[in-house]
Description:
heterodimer; A: six-stranded mixed beta sheet; five-stranded antiparallel beta sheet
Amino acid sequence: GESVGLHLPTLSVQEGDNSIINCAYSNSASDYFIWYKQESGKGPQFIIDIRSNMDKRQGQRVTVLLNKTVKHLSLQIAATQPGDSAVYFCAETFQGAQKLVFGQGTRLTINP
Amino acid sequence: DTAVSQTPKYLVTQMGNDKSIKCEQNLGHDTMYWYKQDSKKFLKIMFSYNNKELIINETVPNRFSPKSPDKAHLNLHINSLELGDSAVYFCASSRREIAGYTGELFFGEGSRLTVL
Protein backbone atom coordinates (compact mmCIF):
# COMPACT_ATOMS: atom_id res chain seq x y z
CA GLY A 1 0.00 0.00 0.00
CA GLU A 2 0.93 3.65 0.01
CA SER A 3 3.28 4.83 2.67
CA VAL A 4 5.56 7.74 3.26
CA GLY A 5 7.69 7.19 6.30
CA LEU A 6 10.26 9.05 8.31
CA HIS A 7 13.44 7.77 9.90
CA LEU A 8 13.17 9.82 13.09
CA PRO A 9 10.02 10.92 14.87
CA THR A 10 11.86 13.61 16.90
CA LEU A 11 14.88 15.77 16.25
CA SER A 12 16.56 18.19 18.67
CA VAL A 13 19.09 20.71 17.43
CA GLN A 14 20.96 23.64 18.87
CA GLU A 15 19.84 27.07 17.80
CA GLY A 16 21.99 28.20 14.91
CA ASP A 17 22.87 24.69 13.77
CA ASN A 18 21.59 23.13 10.57
CA SER A 19 18.72 20.64 10.74
CA ILE A 20 18.18 17.69 8.44
CA ILE A 21 14.84 15.92 8.37
CA ASN A 22 14.60 12.72 6.38
CA CYS A 23 11.75 10.96 4.63
CA ALA A 24 11.48 7.62 2.85
CA TYR A 25 8.70 6.87 0.40
CA SER A 26 7.64 3.58 -1.10
CA ASN A 27 5.43 4.48 -4.07
CA SER A 28 7.60 4.32 -7.16
CA ALA A 29 4.92 6.17 -9.10
CA SER A 30 5.31 9.28 -6.94
CA ASP A 31 7.04 12.08 -8.79
CA TYR A 32 6.12 15.21 -6.89
CA PHE A 33 7.06 15.79 -3.27
CA ILE A 34 6.21 18.53 -0.82
CA TRP A 35 7.39 19.46 2.66
CA TYR A 36 4.92 20.95 5.13
CA LYS A 37 5.47 22.60 8.51
CA GLN A 38 2.86 22.35 11.23
CA GLU A 39 3.16 24.62 14.24
CA SER A 40 1.35 23.82 17.45
CA GLY A 41 -2.40 24.41 17.16
CA LYS A 42 -2.24 25.23 13.46
CA GLY A 43 -2.72 23.54 10.15
CA PRO A 44 0.20 22.38 7.98
CA GLN A 45 1.83 25.05 5.82
CA PHE A 46 3.65 24.55 2.54
CA ILE A 47 7.42 24.99 2.76
CA ILE A 48 8.94 23.76 -0.47
CA ASP A 49 8.31 21.23 -3.21
CA ILE A 50 10.35 19.27 -5.70
CA ARG A 51 9.56 17.30 -8.83
CA SER A 52 11.25 14.05 -9.75
CA ASN A 53 13.18 15.64 -12.62
CA MET A 54 15.21 17.52 -10.01
CA ASP A 55 17.67 16.36 -7.34
CA LYS A 56 17.79 19.54 -5.34
CA ARG A 57 15.78 22.65 -4.82
CA GLN A 58 16.57 25.62 -2.61
CA GLY A 59 14.35 28.11 -0.88
CA GLN A 60 14.94 30.65 1.81
CA ARG A 61 17.05 28.81 4.42
CA VAL A 62 15.62 25.50 3.25
CA THR A 63 16.86 22.94 0.76
CA VAL A 64 15.13 19.78 -0.35
CA LEU A 65 17.14 16.88 -1.73
CA LEU A 66 15.61 14.00 -3.65
CA ASN A 67 17.24 10.63 -4.25
CA LYS A 68 14.95 8.63 -6.47
CA THR A 69 17.25 5.63 -6.52
CA VAL A 70 16.66 4.92 -2.85
CA LYS A 71 13.30 6.69 -2.64
CA HIS A 72 14.49 9.21 -0.11
CA LEU A 73 14.12 12.90 0.36
CA SER A 74 15.38 15.29 2.97
CA LEU A 75 14.69 18.79 4.18
CA GLN A 76 17.64 20.85 5.31
CA ILE A 77 17.07 23.96 7.38
CA ALA A 78 20.04 26.29 7.68
CA ALA A 79 20.80 28.20 10.89
CA THR A 80 17.82 26.78 12.76
CA GLN A 81 15.84 29.34 14.73
CA PRO A 82 13.32 28.98 17.58
CA GLY A 83 10.54 29.72 15.10
CA ASP A 84 11.46 26.55 13.23
CA SER A 85 10.10 24.44 16.08
CA ALA A 86 7.26 22.44 14.57
CA VAL A 87 6.28 19.08 13.15
CA TYR A 88 7.52 18.60 9.60
CA PHE A 89 5.78 16.36 7.10
CA CYS A 90 6.80 15.10 3.73
CA ALA A 91 4.00 14.38 1.27
CA GLU A 92 3.97 12.67 -2.10
CA THR A 93 1.74 12.53 -5.12
CA PHE A 94 1.78 11.68 -8.80
CA GLN A 95 0.00 12.80 -11.91
CA GLY A 96 -3.69 12.02 -11.64
CA ALA A 97 -3.51 10.93 -7.99
CA GLN A 98 -5.81 13.79 -6.95
CA LYS A 99 -4.46 13.69 -3.40
CA LEU A 100 -1.38 14.11 -1.25
CA VAL A 101 -0.19 11.22 0.91
CA PHE A 102 1.52 12.44 4.06
CA GLY A 103 4.30 10.82 6.03
CA GLN A 104 4.27 10.37 9.80
CA GLY A 105 5.94 13.66 10.71
CA THR A 106 9.11 14.67 12.58
CA ARG A 107 8.96 16.95 15.57
CA LEU A 108 11.82 19.46 15.48
CA THR A 109 12.76 21.09 18.78
CA ILE A 110 15.33 23.84 19.14
CA ASN A 111 17.65 24.00 22.14
CA PRO A 112 18.77 27.48 23.15
CA ASP B 1 -8.55 37.47 6.08
CA THR B 2 -8.48 33.76 6.88
CA ALA B 3 -8.05 31.76 3.69
CA VAL B 4 -9.47 28.47 4.94
CA SER B 5 -11.65 28.71 8.02
CA GLN B 6 -13.31 25.92 9.89
CA THR B 7 -15.71 25.89 12.81
CA PRO B 8 -15.84 24.91 15.54
CA LYS B 9 -12.20 24.83 16.62
CA TYR B 10 -13.02 22.55 19.54
CA LEU B 11 -15.83 20.06 19.91
CA VAL B 12 -16.45 17.83 22.94
CA THR B 13 -19.35 15.43 22.76
CA GLN B 14 -20.69 12.10 23.98
CA MET B 15 -20.55 8.80 22.12
CA GLY B 16 -23.55 8.27 19.91
CA ASN B 17 -24.13 11.95 19.19
CA ASP B 18 -24.15 13.55 15.76
CA LYS B 19 -21.98 16.58 15.03
CA SER B 20 -20.95 18.77 12.11
CA ILE B 21 -17.84 20.73 11.21
CA LYS B 22 -18.04 23.53 8.68
CA CYS B 23 -15.35 24.75 6.30
CA GLU B 24 -15.13 27.73 4.00
CA GLN B 25 -12.35 28.94 1.72
CA ASN B 26 -12.06 32.37 0.15
CA LEU B 27 -9.17 31.50 -2.18
CA GLY B 28 -11.33 30.75 -5.19
CA HIS B 29 -10.06 27.17 -5.27
CA ASP B 30 -11.93 24.41 -7.03
CA THR B 31 -10.92 21.51 -4.82
CA MET B 32 -11.51 20.99 -1.11
CA TYR B 33 -10.49 18.20 1.23
CA TRP B 34 -11.00 16.74 4.66
CA TYR B 35 -8.01 15.21 6.40
CA LYS B 36 -7.98 13.45 9.78
CA GLN B 37 -4.97 13.79 12.10
CA ASP B 38 -4.69 11.23 14.88
CA SER B 39 -2.95 11.49 18.22
CA LYS B 40 0.36 10.50 16.64
CA LYS B 41 0.06 13.39 14.17
CA PHE B 42 -0.56 11.10 11.21
CA LEU B 43 -2.50 12.95 8.51
CA LYS B 44 -4.81 10.88 6.36
CA ILE B 45 -7.09 12.06 3.61
CA MET B 46 -10.78 11.32 4.04
CA PHE B 47 -12.57 13.08 1.20
CA SER B 48 -11.96 15.47 -1.64
CA TYR B 49 -14.44 17.46 -3.69
CA ASN B 50 -13.89 19.25 -6.97
CA ASN B 51 -16.51 21.83 -7.88
CA LYS B 52 -19.03 20.23 -5.50
CA GLU B 53 -18.40 16.76 -6.93
CA LEU B 54 -17.01 13.98 -4.73
CA ILE B 55 -13.66 12.84 -6.12
CA ILE B 56 -12.13 10.82 -3.31
CA ASN B 57 -13.68 8.78 -0.52
CA GLU B 58 -10.88 6.97 1.26
CA THR B 59 -12.87 4.05 2.71
CA VAL B 60 -14.30 6.27 5.39
CA PRO B 61 -17.22 4.79 7.36
CA ASN B 62 -20.55 5.97 6.03
CA ARG B 63 -21.20 7.62 9.40
CA PHE B 64 -19.13 10.42 7.86
CA SER B 65 -20.99 12.40 5.25
CA PRO B 66 -19.39 15.38 3.53
CA LYS B 67 -21.52 17.99 1.84
CA SER B 68 -20.42 20.71 -0.55
CA PRO B 69 -23.19 23.25 -1.18
CA ASP B 70 -20.85 25.26 -3.42
CA LYS B 71 -17.19 25.14 -4.29
CA ALA B 72 -16.25 27.47 -1.43
CA HIS B 73 -17.76 25.28 1.27
CA LEU B 74 -17.21 21.71 2.39
CA ASN B 75 -18.91 20.55 5.56
CA LEU B 76 -18.44 17.28 7.41
CA HIS B 77 -21.27 15.61 9.30
CA ILE B 78 -20.58 12.68 11.58
CA ASN B 79 -23.33 10.40 12.86
CA SER B 80 -23.23 8.11 15.89
CA LEU B 81 -19.86 9.31 17.10
CA GLU B 82 -17.43 6.72 18.43
CA LEU B 83 -14.42 7.06 20.72
CA GLY B 84 -12.11 6.37 17.78
CA ASP B 85 -13.42 9.43 15.99
CA SER B 86 -11.51 11.63 18.42
CA ALA B 87 -8.95 13.46 16.32
CA VAL B 88 -8.18 16.80 14.72
CA TYR B 89 -10.00 17.26 11.44
CA PHE B 90 -8.43 19.54 8.87
CA CYS B 91 -10.09 21.14 5.92
CA ALA B 92 -7.91 22.13 2.98
CA SER B 93 -8.27 23.54 -0.50
CA SER B 94 -6.20 23.68 -3.66
CA ARG B 95 -6.36 25.09 -7.15
CA ARG B 96 -7.55 23.01 -10.04
CA GLU B 97 -4.89 20.47 -10.83
CA ILE B 98 -2.12 21.78 -13.02
CA ALA B 99 -0.95 19.25 -15.61
CA GLY B 100 -2.70 16.56 -13.63
CA TYR B 101 -0.98 17.27 -10.32
CA THR B 102 -2.63 18.18 -7.06
CA GLY B 103 -1.69 21.76 -6.34
CA GLU B 104 -0.41 23.16 -3.07
CA LEU B 105 -2.83 22.48 -0.24
CA PHE B 106 -3.92 25.34 2.00
CA PHE B 107 -5.09 24.07 5.37
CA GLY B 108 -7.46 25.45 7.96
CA GLU B 109 -6.44 25.53 11.60
CA GLY B 110 -8.20 22.30 12.43
CA SER B 111 -11.18 21.22 14.50
CA ARG B 112 -10.31 19.12 17.54
CA LEU B 113 -13.06 16.58 18.19
CA THR B 114 -13.13 14.77 21.53
CA VAL B 115 -15.63 11.97 21.98
CA LEU B 116 -16.27 10.94 25.59
